[in-house]
Amino acid sequence: MVAYRRLGRSGLKITEITYGNWLTHGSQVEDETATACVRAALDAGITTFDTADVYANTRAETVLGEALKGQRRASLEIFTKVFWPTGPQGANDRGLSRKHILESIDGSLERLQTDYVDLYQAHRFDHVTPLEETMQAFADVVRQGKALYIGVSEWTADQIRAGKALADELGVPLISNQPQYSMLWRVIEGEVVPTSRELGLSQVVWSPIAQGVLTGKYRPDQAPPAGSRGADDKGGAQMISRFLTNTEVLERVQDLRPVADELGLSMAQLAIAWVLQNDNVAAAIIGASRPEQVAENVKASGVTIPPELMARIDQALGDVVVSDPAMTQKSSPAEI
């Protein structure tokens, strides 16, 4: 079964492998398959589920809510997010204004068919709305019992520090950050992780297998396999074009196979186990387009990669790893 880790300095425990439905539920896979994937996650011992209102333009929340119907609510940890525009995309249907946050949480709860979410996250940093307004709105969401904890996603170290200071003043538990993190994308290691350790936040990381690139199924100078994310024209291919168009990245990923073989792991399991070696990571978010992918990927839980093999991974990937902390800043739009 999947192991649990504490989220930040809070008392909340979550499964170190968390199921997320970005780019799948409501878009890439049919509802029946999406439900089967959620059931597979539950069968494997996953109790933590991550989504966002913007995924498939709210459809992902609806599918997840239906899939979890009938489960004991207290036995689940449900996360969602707010920031990006949904629906008709009016002037106030975006960002982290008080209006958007308070309206969005009600929509998310209705779609998820729950009275509260365990974690409500700012999906990006809002450069337009005063941070004080944003944090006060999140505080009100918590005090109304609609969220138990709050988190952020893709915030820089300075933004996390400023947000945490205001959260502490308001008595609100800001306990997590949700960044992209993988063997290939390590931009949080230099600044975000040390700051989070200091302030008592954990990372709940997305794309631990680099949207499938670290599975090794994408070969240099070959077309993406049929049915893969790299062949998906609904948005999946665009999301991983950075890696798929770089032949050196694909070649170096193939050099990881001997390490995976030595540990008795698949390439995907190795990638997930690798992010979980970071003690500031509370959970790695996995997605799936087939139930069997969930059953396979949860086998990364509890795996320890010896230091010498961690070093071999670094040597194999070399300078294709992206580690510039400035990349986090670029993930939040200056205007919305």
TrEMBL record:
Q: Which UniProt keywords apply?
A: NADP, Oxidoreductase
Q: Which domain of life is it from?
A: Bacteria
Residue span(s) of domain NADP-dependent oxidoreductase:
16-316
Q: Which SUPFAM superfamilies match?
A: NAD(P)-linked oxidoreductase
What CDD domains would the database entry show?
Aldo_ket_red_shaker-like (cd19074)
Protein family per UniProt? Belongs to the shaker potassium channel beta subunit family.
Protein name per Swiss-Prot or TrEMBL: Aldo/keto reductase family protein
